Amino acid sequence: MMSNWILNGVTKKFEDTTAINNISLEIEENKIYGLIGRNGAGKTTLLKLLANQLQPTEGIIQKGNVSIRGNDELTRSICLARDSINIKGVAAFTVDKILKFASYIYPNWDNDYCEELINKFDLNPDKKYIKLSKGMHTVVGIVIGLASRASLTMFDEPYIGLDPVFRELFYELLIADYEQYKRTIIISSHLINEFENLFERVLIIDRGRVLLNEELEEIRKKARLISGEKSVVEEILKGKNILYKQVIGKLANYTVLDDFTEKELYEYKNRNIKWSSLDLQRLFVNLSKGGHISEQQ
Taking every annotated instance into account, which residue ranges of this chain make up the domain ABC transporter (predicted)? Predict the structure, then answer.
């Protein structure tokens, strides 16, 4: 039986710093999410909370009706792959020893697939982790994430130190394996253009808050930049979901995420109002500037 991963009122504080601020959302099973945010937005903290590596200051994280806190079985179904392994003493291990250790943790581990990944990424299993390059540290995380076949698999910026060839290889392997072994995948990134075609749903986070949680196809249909004389644009956008506006004298640019009819768009053209579709990168930048999604009127 499928059940979603649920965050209910989750806050994480580090002394006087609030890294995650009252997040409530559901993460659907068997879907690829893009977790997008600037550096310091709270992406890694959110992933660590989902992986049960950190505990919320407030709130609860569940799979269905079951809390992940103190639940070893659920925790073993979650894999957080990062560009470095910070467990004390592990850096002195060989890659082979680290991967064997990972195979004991994750019940769905596929050893044959692990060997295939080692060969595809030219990873030397006999080399000590501490002697690897930054890019190969990232590769070790990718291999663990893919071979774990964990029901919730998360990749935290899985491109650090990788050349374009290995980045492209990762994308191809991820999609191929996901099609064969469906699971929930979250990719944290600010390289939006490279990853956009992988995402099915997008979470945009800033200052520890989720600013947007939407299907990528809906974003592509709804995201628009509306430009023209400020008074006219404000009149025609009444009731629309305005994310961000930039005013230059009597002119204004509005970033909007909403439905538009063909009749509306035709009317805009007749009133000398320009509009264009927005890609995910520009939507992210403008939404981060605006800080919140305005309420529908």
Answer: 5-232
- Percent of the chain predicted with pLDDT > 70: 97
Task: Report d(CA 237, CA 252) in Å as an integer.
Answer: 12
> What does each C-alpha distance from 140 to 38, 98, 116, 143, 247 come to in angstroms?
25, 9, 13, 5, 47
- Bridge partners of 34, per DSSP, are 187, 202
Query: pLDDT tens across 139-194, in order?
Result: 999 999 999 999 999 999 999 999 999 999 999 999 999 999 999 999 998 888 88
Beta partners for residue 215, in sequence order: 201
Which residues, including other chains, have CB under 8 Å from residue 244's CB and lie 6 or more apart? 254, 255, 286, 287, 289, 290
Tokens for 276, please give them: 């264009």
For residue 293, pLDDT beyond 50: no
Structure tokens at 288: 């981060």
| DSSP label of 29 | S
Q: Distance from CA of residue 180 to its chain's centroid?
A: 21
Residues paired with 18 in a beta bridge:
13
Q: Using alpha carbons only, what angle is made at residue 120 by residues 140 and 110, rounded to the nearest 5 degrees?
A: 65
Report how far residue 221's alpha carbon sits from residue 260's, in angstroms, rounded to the nearest whole number: 9
CB contact burial 213-251 (16+ within 10 A = b; e otherwise) = ebebeebeebbbbbbbebeebeebbeebbbbbbeeeeee
Domains identified in the chain and CATH numbers: 5-207 (3.40.50.300), 220-290 (3.30.70)
